[in-house]
């Protein structure tokens, strides 16, 4: 579950174009600076004015790292009649915070002719100069002076007049915000779409969160903004006619049963200016809280909480493998619902094979109906015996909300044929338990041991020599057993030559370019040369450390190629070298 501070990047830009930008007739922006953390912009509300008119200059900085104060640029044929008036804005855009500051000046021309506002400079950035033409008289329409019933001077401060009218118009503007759910009753894990709508009879120039939406008790996914007409759509709210625009859409999945409330969110809305002495004004509009009734899910053995409609399949990447090589089993769940909640695959146990933990891959997309697509888990299966290895069915359960019940499905059983009776090439040879004295070389086949001998004349002398050799061999083996602990024992010490060879192979695995399978096999071989076979009953620290390292090595060796394993191989080789130096 995650409560999210949500933004609506791209929506404001569209609204400004659709509903009327408050901006001026001209402006200049600083050139792009890749190292800058803020942008600098200057603009005026007209490029041509009368000598008796006034001009409004606005300097805006957006982002962080800008100076607290921005110096007034050089003015040609212009004087400051008022200002600066500063304002700050703080908003959430695509879940990220952004801030801006504006400085507004009222300028009065000195004489007819050319005027200019110089470049604004701040923090190493600079805007372009703005040229203004001044003509005789007045060319801007003048609004009729208000008759003040309280006896105040109707020719008072024009700046106060300008901002005061903006506040009055903002207070009376018909603008509303609404949070509308696609449904108000559902089960845990079912999706609903929550849309935030702007209803307006006025031109909107700015729209921000003052209090961002909170979605406690819901898993939240973003949805693309619904495509609408540039002029919005007609709508009626509380008996009033408006134009309606979708501002923000969220896909919500309730994570617990009961009455869940989505609290009110407050929007700060800026109105576009309608004249020179109209600052536009800013108003705040809250949404009403939304209450959702959430029904619990039924309980059943093996049910993991998946809600929607799904199907499950299983497949092997090959029908047969040589003994010692690996096959990949893919378990796939696909459909539509709360698919992101399906985080674990069923437990997989295969008799006669070692199964490594799965790697998960997802191909998901979000829509109004939920999260659709597929999730796939890839198990590496390494057979430990020849013949047929049977993969049992894998079960999966989900809640079908339309049917109101839990549906259980299972994959078909699979069979993997394992060929051969020896381990695959590249694996270190493991000494047979029945011949502890045999350190290397190919093991004899059972058929060779069972062959009947044919005695030729004079063979008794040969037989005697063989028997004598066996007696000496057994004697020497027994002496070795008394001197050391054998494979896996604490007292076993590999020869210096074997240790040097093992360390050279580990250095090769870490340094030379090779596949992860080749590198892991080389590490495994080096460990075999250094330690031999670790006895099953050995629970010493050395035995546990070597076993854990071998498990990691074999996992990398047989894992599907899902990325670059070079760093992992280097880490395994370094760990193996440390283990060899410490315990071999």
Supply the key terms.
single chain, 584 residues, alpha+beta, Immunoglobulin-like, 4 domains, five-stranded antiparallel β-sheet, 31 strands, 38% strand, elongated, disordered N terminus
Give an overview of the whole structure.
The protein has 584 residues and is α+β, with helices and mostly antiparallel strands. The chain folds into four domains: 21-149, Immunoglobulin-like, CATH 2.60.40; 169-295, Immunoglobulin-like, CATH 2.60.40; 306-419, Immunoglobulin-like, CATH 2.60.40; 496-583, no CATH class. It contains eight helices and 31 strands. The strands form nine sheets. The protein has a five-stranded antiparallel β-sheet, with no helix packed on it. Strands 12, 14, 16, 17 and 18 form a five-stranded antiparallel β-sheet that branches. Strands 3-11-8-5 form a four-stranded mixed β-sheet, with no helix packed on it.
User: How far do the termini sit from each other?
Assistant: 49 Å
Please tally the helical runs, counting DSSP H or I stretches of 4 or more residues.
8
Radius of gyration: 39 Å
Instruction: Bin the strand percentage.
Output: 35-45%
Strand order of the largest sheet: 1-2-4-7-6
Number of strands: 31
| Named CATH topology of the largest domain | Immunoglobulin-like
**Anisotropy-based shape:** elongated
- What is the percent of helical residues? 10-25%
CATH class division of the largest domain: Mainly Beta
> What about the largest sheet?
5 strands, antiparallel
Provide mean pLDDT, rounded. 76
Number of domains: 4
SSE diagram, text form:
Blueprint: H1 11-19, E1 26-29, E2 38-44, E3 48-50, E4 55-63, E5 75-76, E6 78-93, E7 96-109, E8 113-117, E9 121-122, E10 125-126, E11 130-135, H2 158-172, E12 175-181, E13 185-187, E14 192-200, E15 204-211, E16 218-222, E17 233-237, E18 240-254, E19 258-262, E20 266-271, E21 282-286, E22 290-295, E23 308-316, E24 320-322, E25 327-337, E26 353-367, E27 370-383, E28 387-391, E29 395-400, E30 405-410, E31 414-419, H3 446-449, H4 459-483, H5 496-511, H6 516-531, H7 541-558, H8 566-583
Parallel strand pairs: 3-11, 13-22, 24-31
Antiparallel strand pairs: 1-2, 2-4, 4-7, 5-8, 6-7, 8-11, 9-10, 12-14, 14-18, 15-20, 16-18, 17-18, 19-22, 20-21, 23-25, 25-27, 26-27, 28-31, 29-30
């Amino acid at each position: 579950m995650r409560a999210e501070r949500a933004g609506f990047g791209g929506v404001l830009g569209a609204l400004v174009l659709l509903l009327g930008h408050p901006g001026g007739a001209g402006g200049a922006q600083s050139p792009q600076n890749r190292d800058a953390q803020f942008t600098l912009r200057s603009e005026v509300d007209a490029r041509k004015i009368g000598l008796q008119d006034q001009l409004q200059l606005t300097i805006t900085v957006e982002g962080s790292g800008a100076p607290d104060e921005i110096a007034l640029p050089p003015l040609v044929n212009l004087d400051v009649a008022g200002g600066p008036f500063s304002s700050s804005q703080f908003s959430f855009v695509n879940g990220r915070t952004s801030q801006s500051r504006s400085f507004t000046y009222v300028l009065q021309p000195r004489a007819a002719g050319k005027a200019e506002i110089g470049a604004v400079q701040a923090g190493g950035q600079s805007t372009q100069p703005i040229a203004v033409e001044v003509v005789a008289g007045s060319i801007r329409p003048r609004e009729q002076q208000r008759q003040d019933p309280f006896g105040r001077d109707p020719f008072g401060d024009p700046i106060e007049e300008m901002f005061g009218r903006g506040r009055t118009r903002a207070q009376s503007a018909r603008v509303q915000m609404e949070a509308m759910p696609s449904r108000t009753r559902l089960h845990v894990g079912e999706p609903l779409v929550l849309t935030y709508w702007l209803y307006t009879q006025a031109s909107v120039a700015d729209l921000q969160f003052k209090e961002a939406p909170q979605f406690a008790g819901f898993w939240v996914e973003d949805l693309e903004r619904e495509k609408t007409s540039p002029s919005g759509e007609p709508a009626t709210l509380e008996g009033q006619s408006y134009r309606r625009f979708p501002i923000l859409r969220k896909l919500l999945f309730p994570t617990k049963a009961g009455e869940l409330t989505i609290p009110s969110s407050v929007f700060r809305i800026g109105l576009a200016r309608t004249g020179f002495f109209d600052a536009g004004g800013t108003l705040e509009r809250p949404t009403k809280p939304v209450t959702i009734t959430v029904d619990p899910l039924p309980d059943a053995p093996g049910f993991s909480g998946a809600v929607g409609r799904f199907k499950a399949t299983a497949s092997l990447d090959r029908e047969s493998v040589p003994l010692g090589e690996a096959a990949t089993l893919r378990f796939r769940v696909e459909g539509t619902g709360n698919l992101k909640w399906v985080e674990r695959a069923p437990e997989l146990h295969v008799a006669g094979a070692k199964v490594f933990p799965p790697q998960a891959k997802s191909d998901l997309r979000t829509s109004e109906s939920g999260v659709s697509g597929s999730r796939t888990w890839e198990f590496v299966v390494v057979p430990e015996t020849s013949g047929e290895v049977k993969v049992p069915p894998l079960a999966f359960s989900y809640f079908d909300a339309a049917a109101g019940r839990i549906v259980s499905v299972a994959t078909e059983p699979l069979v993997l044929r394992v060929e051969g009776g020896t381990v695959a090439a590249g694996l270190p040879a493991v000494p047979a338990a029945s011949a502890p004295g045999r350190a290397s070389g190919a093991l004899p086949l059972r058929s060779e041991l069972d062959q009947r001998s044919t005695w030729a004349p004079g063979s008794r002398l040969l037989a005697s020599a063989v028997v004598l050799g066996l007696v000496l061999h057994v004697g020497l083996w027994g002496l070795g057993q008394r001197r050391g602990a054998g494979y896996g024992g604490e007292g076993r010490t590999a020869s210096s030559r074997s240790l040097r060879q093992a360390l050279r192979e580990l250095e090769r695995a870490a340094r030379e370019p090779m596949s992860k399978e080749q590198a892991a096999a080389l590490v495994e071989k080096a460990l075999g040369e250094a330690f031999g076979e670790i006895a099953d009953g050995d629970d010493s620290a050395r035995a546990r450390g070597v076993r854990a390292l071998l498990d990691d090595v074999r996992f990398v060796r047989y894992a599907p190629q899902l990325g670059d394993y070079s760093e992992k191989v280097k880490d395994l080789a370094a760990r193996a070298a440390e283990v060899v130096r410490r315990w071999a």
